[in-house]
Structures are given as structure tokens and as C-alpha cells.
Amino acid sequence: MAVLVVADHDNVSLKDNTNKTVTAALALSPDVDVLVAGQGVDAVAAQAAKITGVRKVLTAQSDALGKQIAEALAACVTPLMANYDAVLIPATSAGKNFAPRVAALLDVAPISEIIEVKGPTTFVRPIYAGNALETVESSDAKKVITVRGTAFKAAGEDGSAAIEAVDPGAGAPKTRFISDELVKSDRPELAGAKIVVSGGRAMGSAEEFHRVIEPLADRLGAAVGASRAAVDAGYAPNDYQVGQTGKVVAPQLYIAVGISGAIQHLAGMKDSKVIVAINKDADAPIFQVADYGLVADYKTAVPDLMAALGDAG
Amino acid sequence: MKILVPVKRVLDYNVKARVKSDQTGVDLANVKMAMNPFCEIAVEEAIRLKEKGVVTEIVVVSIGPIQAQETIRTALAMGGDRGVLVQTDADPEPLEVAKLLKAVALVEQPGLILMGKQAIDGDNNAVGQMLSALLDWPQATFASKIEVSGETVRVTREVDGGLQTLELDLPAVVTADLRLNEPRYASLPNIMKAKKKTIEIKAPDDFGGLAGGHLKVMKVTEPAKRVAGVKVENAAELVAKLKTEAGVI
């Protein structure tokens, strides 16, 4: 049994999610290849070749793949499946976008966002926003699986796999790329950050969110997150949203400031190693999952916290 | 242009899912059911496209038990024109749903299929993409803005790190994300009017039948609960604990 992993990257660098997905793949088979599909990805492929346990790295390059167009990715991956028994794809927005297409083209049932490999055909995945876990057994000869990166440890980087180019496929003749509007930031990426500082609706305005949350995040070298309430109110951009409908994070330390802890939000951060909650409402549900709770108004608590970090730092 | 909007009846999003003690699934007996929130957004967007004069007819389709008629009726009260229920008590997998919807699409011949990005019960986020692949129509998932002009549709998508805009040839499949719009409430007169709108009841066999599942659910369990930790008195104590006890800063 051989397994193909599709790399998570931005044509410039390889993302940690790839190493995590390789770990999931190695639980299925020792024969794991990585596909880097994009444009101008030679450096990314060289990085992928170093992942521990990878047998071979395949590269496929075209303009449409460079823009991660779903039709193009599916047209590239589907024929490769003649050589593999399973394909594991990081559950990023790009991965979730094309994985089901590959499954449909292979006439198999996709298995979304697995968090555990129980055996060669059995997987665990969250349903109902993580309020229940479903163990499923697949009867398909070929499996198409997306992998929730936060549930797996990243594979190391002491390998030296060979790199080989493959056919990029037919592209996406009915879909045209118009533009990207990506948020530029010097902070770590939310999905892979070791520390995340998130703000909630208590901030009251976008200015207050910037003034309070961002300096604390920068002091800790953390990524910035937000609750859906804060995003919906316009205090923080969409891609800051942590939760069932936003990003799922599992950092070493998650600091929730002025977040009440709706089920929606908890689904996105409850697997963090250590959770800190700062909220003036002692009955806020966030305290039920927090390792350390500070019942205080963020207006005084965050400056105090900055001062305490300054002293200790 | 005709638009097809598939909708799903699910556990109301305000109700907490409870796992059955025999681990066979989530308890859906005597709990409030409602239209999947992402489907509601798709219905709203279809109505807005009709209000702009882009869409002439909104056909709402659901696959599910007879009670899913209520879900279709809700969509008709919001502004849908007619409904199709493919009635089944089976809980078909995304692949089977996509195959049935493909057959419905081939009968209805819509210019656009607009649907939710995922149902909040199974959280698969798969049917739209699979339907698009089976029809060989282009796709745009996670839409936060949709503009139809002539034979194409321009869709702004929410992706990791920002937004991506694509242009698709019609017919196409587009899936709605949360920020596409805020769905309206149906007015009382519209609820009354919706009672007179047609809902055709069909069987899966009218659309090629249910192929049978590829996935078997072995069990459904509750996730491990986090236990509440300790309350600290002040920021200094918090920093001390994070350094020495937790060792995370």
C-alpha cells in the first residue's frame, strides 16, 4: 500500500501542515510520497524532500496549480491515484476545496478532517462542530482523506528523498483566476502558531482591538485571533476567526481576551495545550475550558499582564 | 436564468448535539430541527440575485425525510419559487447526495447551483465540490461575494490568509460561506403565500436511486472534556504560573 500526501505551500515555502499530514500517512503505510503541485515550486520540493520518512517527492507545475484552482488540482491528482491506495490532503481551505473533487472522480467517499488513524480503513473525525467524534470504516479501495493538522505531530526533517516531475494535468479551462487579496503580516500564521492571543466582542471597536490585542500578541511573539462575534462586528478581519466556521488552532498557549466562549469558538481552540481566559464575567463559559482564569476587565488586566511580562521577560 | 438551491434539514444550530448512550449517533429525537445555516445563506443570495433581475426562477431541492418539506417551505417563504423533495429516510453520504443532485440538475437545467459550503451536522464540506466534479461544471467554494454577468459568474472566496476572486463559465456550482449575506426572516404574508407554492415529492429512484454507502459509522462518541483549571488573582500570578507551572512562555 502506497500513500500520496499533497503538500501545503504557497509556491514559496512549505507549510508545517505537510509534515503533520506525512505523520498521518506514515500511520497507514511506510511508502509515502509527497506531491508539490504549484508554480515555481523547486525550492518547496527541496524542502519536502527533507521530511523524514518520505520516499519520493513529485512536482507538478502550471499557472492554474500555482493559484490552487480546485479543478486543476483534481485533474493533476486523480490520474496519479493509479499508483496509490490513499491520498492524504491537509484540511486547509485549498485542500478542502479540491479533495472532494478527487473523491467524486474516483467514485469514492471522501473522509473529511480526520483527527486519528485507527487502522488502514478506520478513521476518527469530528462532527457537529467537534461536539461528537465519529469513527468511520471505509470500504473503498482508494481513500481520499483530509487531515486536521492540529491532531498530528509534525514529521522531522532529516530525509533526502528524490524529486521527480509529473504531468500537471489539464488545468481548469472553465475557471479563470482574477485576483488574490492576501493579508500581509509579520506575525506567525494563526494555524501553526505556538501562541495565539484572541480578542472578543468585549473589545467594542476595531481601534480597541488593535490597541489591546496586537501589542500583547507581539510581546509574546503570538498570532492574533478573534471570536466570530468580534469578526462579525468588524473589529477584526475574517481570516482571524477561530472557531467551527473559522480556523481550528491548537497552540501551546491560547489566551482568550474578552471572549465569552460560545460552542462555535470552543470548537476551534479547545485542543490548545494551555488555555488562559481573561473575562470580567466570572460565569462566562470560557472559564469551563480554561486552565488559568483571570476574572477581570481586560482594560486593566491586559496592561497588568504586559507589565508582568515586562518584569519577567 | 434558473437557479437551483439544495438545502438540508439539520439539528438547529442553537441546540447542543448530544451523543446517544448506545454510541450509534447524535440524538435527534424531540429536538428542534432547522435549515442548515449555510443553506439559508445560499437561499438568501438566490433571492437577492432574483431581486436584481439576474435570476428568473429559484428551485429549492432537499434530500431527506418527509419533514424536510418544512425546510423547503421555509425557503419558499423567504422567496423561493418551487420545491422538490427527494424523500428518503436513509441518511445518504455526500457522494450519494451529489449523485442525486446531479440527476436533479440534469432535469432542471439551472444556470447556477448555489448551496451551503457544509452542513453543520456531518461537517463534511464535500457535496458542492463533488457535484461540480460529477457535472464537469466549474466550482467556487466559500463564497463571500457573487456577481453574475452574462455567461459568467465572478466569485470572491474566503481562503486561508485572505480572499481569492475567480471567474467561472456558467453553468457553475458555488458554495456559500458565512459572510456572503445575512438571511432575511420570512414575513407573515410570504409565509402564507408559500403555503400555495408547489413542492414535488420524488423518490431517489426517480433520480437513479441510492447507490449504497461506502462508509460505515462504527461508533459516535463524546470528545474528551477539558476540566476547568484554576482562577488566578492577578496578572503577575498568571505570568508566574505560565512560566513555572505550565512552562509555555
Folded structure, characterized:
The complex is a heterodimer of chains A (313) and B (249). Chain A is α/β, with parallel strands linked by helices and 313 residues long. Chain A has helices at residues 16-26, 42-48, 63-66, 70-80, 93-106, 206-220, 228-232, 263-269, 298-312; strands at residues 2-6, 31-38, 54-61, 86-90, 110-114, 116-119, 122-127, 132-138, 143-147, 162-165, 175-182, 195-199, 223-226, 253-257, 274-279, 292-295. In chain A, the strands form three sheets. Chain A has a seven-stranded parallel beta sheet with strand order 5-9-4-1-2-3-10, with helices on both faces. Chain A has a five-stranded parallel beta sheet with strand order 13-12-14-15-16. The model of chain A has no long low-confidence stretch (mean pLDDT 95). Chain B is built from six helices and 13 strands. Chain B has helices at 37-51, 68-78, 94-108, 127-135, 188-194, 235-244, and strands at 2-7, 9-11, 33-35, 57-64, 82-87, 112-116, 139-149, 152-159, 162-169, 172-176, 199-202, 215-221, 230-232. A nine-stranded mixed beta sheet of chain B has the order 9-8-7-10-6-1-4-5-11, with helices on both faces. A two-stranded antiparallel sheet of chain B has the order 2-3. In chain B, helix 2 (68-78) packs across helix 5 (188-194) and helix 3 (94-108) packs across helix 4. Chain B is globular. The model of chain B has no long low-confidence stretch (mean pLDDT 96). Chains A and B meet through helix 4, helix 5, strand 5, strand 7 and strand 8 of A and helix 3, helix 4, strand 7, strand 8 and strand 9 of B.
